[in-house]
Amino acid sequence: MNERAKTKVVITEAELGRLGTDALVALGMRPDDAADAARILVLADLFGVSTHGVSRIESYGERLMIAGIKAMPEIQIEKVAPAIARVDGDNGLGPLVGQRALSAAMDMAREHGIGVVFARGSNHFGPVAPYNMIAAEAGFASMIGSNATTTIAPWGGREAKLGNSPLGFGIPDPDGRPFILDMAMSVVARAKIRNAVKQGTAIPPIWATDSNGVPTEDPTAALAGFLQPIGGHKGYGLALVVDLLAGLLSDAAYLTHVRSWVDAPDQPQNLGHFFILIDVTRLGSADWLSRRMKDFAAILHDTPPADPARPVLLPGETELGNLERQRHEGIAIDPEVLKALHRFARVGASAGETLG
Q: In whole angstroms, what is the distance from residue 145 CA to residue 138 CA?
């Protein structure tokens, strides 16, 4: 037995998808909706991003059980132009709203060459990379983002006014791996700091500051303080752009109007997302794109590494390697996460009549 299997339970993609779906169904969701939402979370685990995988069903489930998130939302799609639509998520589970918005963007991109969707009335929708991956597998280049609960202070400020809004890009390769870049606006995601609290470990001082704006290695103090933005003032500006697209233009909440799911778990967050998809088949043949993508990657891979033990990689290569390996070997999951899924399935089944 390898080290990976000693500390974690190895489960197939199909089994994990069924378990995640069953937990969400027991928590009141429709089976098809639950399966669509679980797909995003399972892809996160396949990528090796366990902080945003099926472990998220624990926090989602707590809000579903008190109707802070609607288990059976009536998601509405409104076409406002030939290639632009708005999605009202009706306070549904974020990955479900995200899947519906992505599907609408793909439909318009197939018809018009480009599809743009602004979603509102949503919640935390998981990591961005799974959406970029689904789009790339269908032949679309994508730029996708969401706003988030406030955790970052404006550059030079001492109060959190903007979220650690994720932003992702995807470019398909018809004959190989797509290019996937999934990034937050902070040096690290807040989930990594929460994990450090659970594990009782220190964090690097470049990750966050305490409530006084002083860099800290204490994860508990960091959760009470602010995340450090990437690139200083440039990261701050980029975070604002994401919130303008995802929050302001979508008619969702933005900046401090976004409610914290920790402080007000029974209240809608009204998060917003945006999806911009391009049908790359309109630009050239599959052979044309594949040749150019391979040349693009080769130029970077051929760069002499500063550290011979660490070759130059493209963004997303590590995660895509994890996905390929875990699809073959099985997904390594923390046994406590699996216990939580089983527990929510049981509790959700008994509390289902309170959901809606």
A: 19
**3-class DSSP assignment, residue 20:** helix
Q: In angstroms, rounded to a whole number, what is the distance separating the alpha carbons of residues 309 and 235?
A: 30
Residue spans of the domains in the chain: they are 9-186+229-284+328-352
Residue pair 86/80 in contact (Cβ under 8 Å)? The answer is yes
Q: Which stretches of the chain are DSSP H helices?
A: 3-7, 13-26, 31-47, 56-65, 94-112, 129-137, 190-199, 219-223, 233-243, 286-301, 317-329, 335-351
| Predicted TM-score of the model (pTM) | 0.91
H-run or E-run covering 122: strand 114-122
The yes or no reply on domain 9-186+229-284+328-352 and CATH 2.60.120.200 is no
3-state helix, strand, coil in the chain (%, to 5): 45, 20, 35
Checking 186-191 for CB contacts under 8 A at 24+ apart, the result is 186/151, 186/152, 186/227, 186/228, 186/229, 186/230, 186/235, 187/227, 187/228, 187/229, 187/230, 188/227, 189/51, 189/52, 189/164, 190/151, 190/164, 190/223, 190/227, 191/51, 191/52
**Summary count for the chain: helices (H), strands (E):** 12, 13
* Nearby residues of 94 by Cβ (< 8 Å), 6 or more positions away: 60, 122, 123, 124, 125, 126, 146, 271
- What is the Cα–Cα distance from 169 to 125, expressed in whole angstroms? 16
Q: pLDDT of the chain along its 356 residues, tens only?
A: 444 445 889 999 999 999 999 999 999 999 999 999 999 999 999 999 998 999 999 999 999 999 999 999 999 999 999 999 999 999 999 999 999 999 999 999 999 999 999 999 999 999 999 999 999 999 999 999 999 999 898 887 888 899 999 999 999 999 999 999 999 999 887 778 988 999 999 999 989 888 888 889 999 999 988 888 888 889 999 999 999 999 999 999 999 999 998 888 999 999 999 999 999 999 999 999 999 999 999 999 999 999 999 999 999 999 999 999 999 999 999 999 999 998 887 765 555 444 33
